[in-house]
Design a protein that fits this description.
about 240 residues, alpha+beta, Jelly Rolls, Arc Repressor Mutant, subunit A, four-stranded antiparallel sheet, 8 helices, about 50% helix, globular
């Protein structure tokens, strides 16, 4: 991993630790240990509380009017959950634990009261909201502009970088999602995800660990970036050529 990426990851890790420490100091926090499959909150439930992950991973699932489930977000340590409930007074999605972890919960009205007395906390809140907006924007860009193989590579790169920012190893990751769930999140079929992963493995950008195909080795995160650029360049050239003609 490059020096710049490592430096950025260290800075983000420090920010997460500082945020958690500040929340612990100024708010009455309810701590809850969750396990894979546990529901933190459900769509339609009355909003009173925000949540922050102290450990573990959580997926955000939206249910369409016709009953289809769509994974719309993935969250790691330090991420805030429940912002979508502020405007309407009800949570808009389900939040489901992907592995064992700890969730910190606190009332929204208590947070606002604490922000009035502690401007640093208000800044932390605004930064969390801004980061959420940026993540949604980047996810939409990936879905709209990247071909299938690059989309899967970008998904793995983002996962690895999220782990790096939290001081965790990135050379081998355990995907807490099935191929079908990854496809659902990326707007692809299970078969397309499997083919993309196989192509990444054939080019040695990733490797499958012996103990299971959810265990993925990433020799160099930078190789994922180069793979993405390699996928995007031919498409951009084709578009340019078509515009000329």
């Amino acid at each position: 991993m490059s020096t710049d990426i490592i430096r950025t990851a260290q800075t983000r890790s420090q920010q997460i630790n500082a945020c958690l420490e500040l929340l612990r100091e100024v708010l009455p926090i309810q701590r809850r240990v969750v396990h894979a499959g546990d529901v933190l909150y459900q769509a339609g439930e009355r909003f009173t509380t925000l949540h922050v992950l102290n450990s573990g991973m959580v997926k955000i699932v939206n249910l369409s009017p016709d009953g289809r489930e769509q994974v719309v977000g993935l969250h790691f340590r330090g991420d805030w959950l429940g912002f979508d409930g502020i405007a309407s007074g009800h949570y808009g999605c389900d939040a489901i634990a992907m592995d064992t972890g700890e969730v910190w919960s606190f009332r929204y009205d208590a947070l606002l009261e604490a922000c009035a007395a502690k401007p640093a906390l208000l800044q932390v809140l605004h930064e969390a909201m801004s980061r959420e907006i940026g993540r949604d924007r980047d996810s939409m860009m990936s879905l709209c502009t990247l071909p299938a193989d690059a989309r899967v590579a970008d998904f793995l790169r983002n996962w690895a970088e999220a782990l790096a920012e939290r001081g965790l190893r990135t050379d081998q990751i355990t995907l807490r999602m099935t191929r079908a769930e990854i496809g659902n999140y990326l707007g692809m079929t299970l078969e397309t995800v499997s083919r993309a992963l196989s192509r990444l493995a054939r080019t040695d950008v990733i490797r499958f660990a012996e103990k299971g195909r959810r265990e993925i080795q990433i020799p160099k995160v930078e190789a994922l970036e180069r793979f993405i650029q390699g996928c995007v360049a031919p498409a951009a050239s084709a578009v340019a050529a078509e515009a000329v003609h």
